[in-house]
Amino acid sequence: MNREDIVHMVREAGGADITSHGWTSWVGTQSTEFLERFADLVAAEKEKQIINILGRLQERNHSHNYYAYAINVIKGEA
Length: 78
Hints:
Layout: H1 3-12, E1 16-20, E2 23-27, H2 32-60, H3 66-75
Antiparallel strand pairs: 1-2
Helix pairs in contact: 2-3
Protein backbone atom coordinates (compact mmCIF):
# COMPACT_ATOMS: atom_id res chain seq x y z
CA MET A 1 0.00 0.00 0.00
CA ASN A 2 1.17 3.47 -0.75
CA ARG A 3 0.14 6.86 0.60
CA GLU A 4 -2.56 7.33 -2.04
CA ASP A 5 -4.11 3.96 -1.17
CA ILE A 6 -4.25 4.89 2.51
CA VAL A 7 -5.75 8.32 1.79
CA HIS A 8 -8.38 6.65 -0.39
CA MET A 9 -9.26 4.23 2.42
CA VAL A 10 -9.49 7.08 4.96
CA ARG A 11 -11.94 8.87 2.68
CA GLU A 12 -13.88 5.67 1.99
CA ALA A 13 -14.17 5.08 5.74
CA GLY A 14 -15.67 8.54 6.20
CA GLY A 15 -12.71 10.80 6.85
CA ALA A 16 -12.37 14.15 5.13
CA ASP A 17 -9.25 16.21 4.58
CA ILE A 18 -9.08 19.97 4.90
CA THR A 19 -5.98 21.72 3.60
CA SER A 20 -5.16 25.17 4.88
CA HIS A 21 -1.88 27.08 4.71
CA GLY A 22 -0.05 23.99 3.46
CA TRP A 23 -1.27 21.76 6.30
CA THR A 24 -3.73 18.92 5.94
CA SER A 25 -6.11 18.14 8.77
CA TRP A 26 -8.36 15.12 8.88
CA VAL A 27 -11.87 15.41 10.28
CA GLY A 28 -14.23 12.60 11.18
CA THR A 29 -11.38 10.23 11.96
CA GLN A 30 -11.55 10.09 15.74
CA SER A 31 -14.71 8.05 16.21
CA THR A 32 -14.72 4.37 17.02
CA GLU A 33 -16.96 3.76 14.00
CA PHE A 34 -14.48 5.40 11.64
CA LEU A 35 -11.57 3.45 13.12
CA GLU A 36 -13.45 0.16 12.75
CA ARG A 37 -14.36 0.91 9.10
CA PHE A 38 -10.79 1.98 8.32
CA ALA A 39 -9.31 -1.09 10.02
CA ASP A 40 -11.68 -3.33 8.02
CA LEU A 41 -10.61 -1.68 4.76
CA VAL A 42 -6.90 -2.04 5.60
CA ALA A 43 -7.36 -5.68 6.62
CA ALA A 44 -9.26 -6.47 3.41
CA GLU A 45 -6.54 -4.88 1.29
CA LYS A 46 -3.78 -6.77 3.10
CA GLU A 47 -5.74 -10.02 2.73
CA LYS A 48 -6.07 -9.36 -1.00
CA GLN A 49 -2.32 -8.73 -1.27
CA ILE A 50 -1.48 -11.92 0.62
CA ILE A 51 -3.83 -13.96 -1.57
CA ASN A 52 -2.19 -12.50 -4.69
CA ILE A 53 1.28 -13.42 -3.41
CA LEU A 54 0.18 -16.95 -2.54
CA GLY A 55 -1.45 -17.29 -5.95
CA ARG A 56 1.78 -16.30 -7.71
CA LEU A 57 3.75 -18.74 -5.57
CA GLN A 58 1.30 -21.53 -6.42
CA GLU A 59 1.65 -20.77 -10.14
CA ARG A 60 5.41 -21.30 -9.85
CA ASN A 61 5.20 -24.53 -7.86
CA HIS A 62 2.92 -27.23 -9.19
CA SER A 63 4.40 -30.08 -7.13
CA HIS A 64 2.10 -29.37 -4.17
CA ASN A 65 -0.95 -27.32 -3.34
CA TYR A 66 0.14 -25.70 -0.06
CA TYR A 67 -0.31 -22.18 -1.38
CA ALA A 68 -3.72 -22.93 -2.88
CA TYR A 69 -4.78 -24.47 0.43
CA ALA A 70 -3.58 -21.36 2.30
CA ILE A 71 -5.64 -19.18 -0.05
CA ASN A 72 -8.73 -21.27 0.72
CA VAL A 73 -8.08 -21.01 4.46
CA ILE A 74 -7.79 -17.22 4.24
CA LYS A 75 -11.02 -17.04 2.25
CA GLY A 76 -12.71 -19.32 4.80
CA GLU A 77 -13.27 -22.05 2.23
CA ALA A 78 -11.14 -24.77 3.84
